């Protein structure tokens, strides 16, 4: 079982013929992802990476049956790309683009709200169901198939968590990089809920950062459900000074509850297994599953 993407996903790449889209689409195809084509306006009818190029997402849906899109469109046009995909009936949209203006994202998020769309990102590494589909920029070889779900605000820590889980003798059901921008499509709680509802995911790794309330909201929701599956939590930015943005645009301490220490305290109080270092994720998860 998995969430969001699997071997049956029909994936298109928006920004297909650009340098980023070309490189990562090639990696996804090599991994075995079912990439059915891509979209670059004005280049419809051409072939790229042995896949058809379409002028619009609607063409890709009508002619190739696409149901998942990954976006490598430049920031100024990326919100429009998200809305175009939603308009065309794509149900899972994964926006890799970093630096989309907040005003644009507010508009795009409102636009897709009632269209039955799951948006992951922007500014995220994507989603991977190991052995089935890699729809993102993560190094596929790190991820082995298994029963631990990962939800992470940080790209590189997604890979680190997967590595630790695999080294501890387990594997990954689906890993979701939700993105680190101030406005993102899917919150930590929403991503955790997907994995809680997946019958074959037995434990969840939840990686957060300073800034915002996503992790606290997720922890309180997990507690409200009676902690149905063990969740190992880690918060990056434990030494971050107040008021200074660290890495992601959304990683900034705005108030007392935004610090790593405050988030870790809430997570512990809610019954999560909180680790001080990513190096402990695998061992603590293995112990929690006993």
From TrEMBL:
The family note in this entry says: Belongs to the succinate/malate CoA ligase alpha subunit family.
Residues binding substrate are 159
Q: What class of enzyme is it?
A: ligase
Residues that, per the record, bind CoA: 17-20, 43, 96-98
What is the organism field in this record?
Answer: Fulvivirga sedimenti
**May I have one GO cellular component term?**
succinate-CoA ligase complex (ADP-forming)
Q: Does the keyword RNA-binding apply?
A: no
Q: Which SMART domains match?
A: CoA_binding (SM00881)
PANTHER family, alphabetically?
A: SUCCINATE--COA LIGASE [ADP_GDP-FORMING] SUBUNIT ALPHA, MITOCHONDRIAL, SUCCINYL-COA LIGASE SUBUNIT ALPHA
Q: How does it assemble?
A: Heterotetramer of two alpha and two beta subunits.
Any keyword Plastid? Answer: no
User: What processes does the entry annotate via GO biological process terms?
Assistant: tricarboxylic acid cycle
Protein name, UniProt field: Succinate--CoA ligase [ADP-forming] subunit alpha
A single MF term (Gene Ontology): succinate-CoA ligase (GDP-forming) activity
Q: Which residues form the CoA-binding domain?
A: 4-100
What is this enzyme's catalytic activity, as reactions?
GTP + succinate + CoA = succinyl-CoA + GDP + phosphate; succinate + ATP + CoA = succinyl-CoA + ADP + phosphate
**Annotated metabolic or biological route of this protein:** Carbohydrate metabolism; tricarboxylic acid cycle; succinate from succinyl-CoA (ligase route): step 1/1
What Pfam families is this protein classified in? CoA_binding, Ligase_CoA
> What EC identifiers does the entry list?
6.2.1.5
């Amino acid at each position: 079982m998995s969430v969001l993407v699997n071997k049956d996903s029909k994936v298109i790449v928006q920004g297909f013929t650009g340098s980023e889209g070309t490189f990562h689409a090639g990696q996804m195809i090599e991994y075995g992802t079912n990439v059915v084509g891509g979209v670059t306006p004005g280049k419809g009818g051409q072939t790229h990476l042995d896949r058809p190029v379409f002028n619009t997402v609607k063409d890709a849906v009508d002619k190739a049956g696409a149901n998942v899109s990954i976006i490598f469109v430049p920031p100024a046009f990326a919100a429009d790309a998200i809305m175009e995909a939603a308009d065309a009936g794509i149900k899972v949209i994964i926006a890799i683009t970093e630096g989309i203006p907040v005003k644009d994202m507010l508009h795009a998020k409102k636009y897709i709200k009632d269209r039955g769309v799951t948006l992951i990102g922007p500014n995220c590494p994507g989603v991977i169901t190991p052995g089935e589909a890699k729809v993102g920029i993560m190094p596929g070889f790190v991820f082995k198939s298994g029963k631990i779900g990962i939800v992470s605000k940080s790209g590189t820590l997604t890979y680190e968590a997967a590595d630790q889980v695999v080294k501890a003798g387990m594997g990954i059901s689906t890993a979701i990089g939700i993105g680190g921008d101030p406005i993102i499509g899917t919150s930590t709680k929403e991503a955790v809920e997907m994995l809680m509802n997946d019958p074959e995911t037995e434990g969840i790794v939840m990686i957060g950062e300073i800034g915002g309330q996503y992790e606290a909201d997720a922890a309180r929701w997990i507690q409200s459900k009676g902690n149905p599956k063990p969740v190992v939590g880690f918060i990056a930015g434990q030494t971050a000074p107040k008021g200074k943005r660290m890495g992601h645009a959304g990683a900034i301490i705005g108030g007392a509850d935004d610090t790593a220490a405050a988030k870790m305290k809430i997570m512990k109080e809610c019954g999560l297994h909180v680790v001080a270092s990513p190096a402990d994720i695998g061992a603590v998860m293995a112990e929690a599953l006993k």
